[in-house]
Amino acid sequence: MSSLAISLELLETHQGHPVQSWEFSSDETVVIGRARESNVVIGNPYVSRTHACLRVNEGRWELSSTSTHGVIVDGRRQDFVVISDGTEFRLGGQGPWIRIRWKTSELDEESQTITFDPVKTPLLVLDTERLADEVEEITEGGFFERLTELATRLKKSPDR
């Protein structure tokens, strides 16, 4: 590895897909936590204000827990671990997962991460024209009348 730059990927809980990423160089100390002053701010109730710290020591990245909740690596709570490319850790027993990737100068398919920007590409786009058409179809068509008749019959049903 020629560079000590890293990328941290916040992973989606169920599928493990990256949902946000941050990049850092070896001359930075990276603080992960809920506090606004953190380099990686994660607004999650299971994340401490200052939860973990990443720094380069003797040419290698190290992860230190700074929280009473700890970090989970390979299924075990760790206070300190030397990390490698692809290391995944969890912030506490119920917090979010983070994956670490080495950053290289060459761009290859394996080192690229797809990130999502909800401002540029929202998860949900409401088609107001289609919505108006569907509302009109329900209220003006026979569907709403049939539904009202069915509700009236059910209310009068002796089984109630």
Mean pLDDT: 84
The gyration radius over C-alpha positions equals 25 Å
Specify the helix fraction band.
10-25%
Characterize the main sheet: 6 strands, antiparallel
Share in β-strands: 25-35%
**How are helices and strands ordered from N to C?**
EEEEEEEEEEEHH
Name the shape in a single word: elongated
Strand-pairing-aware structural class = alpha+beta
Low-confidence stretches: none
**Strands across the major sheet, in which order?**
2-1-11-10-7-8
Total of DSSP H or I helical runs spanning 4+ residues: 2
- Number of DSSP strand runs: 11
Distance between the termini: 73 Å
Can you walk through the features of this model?
The chain is 18% helix and 31% strand. It has 160 residues and is α+β, with helices and mostly antiparallel strands. The strands form 2 sheets. A 6-stranded antiparallel sheet has the order 2-1-11-10-7-8, with no helix packed on it. The protein has a 5-stranded mixed sheet with strand order 4-3-5-6-9, with no helix packed on it. Strand 7 (71-73) and strand 8 (76-78) form a beta hairpin. The longest helix is centred in the last third of the chain and has 15 residues, at 142-156.
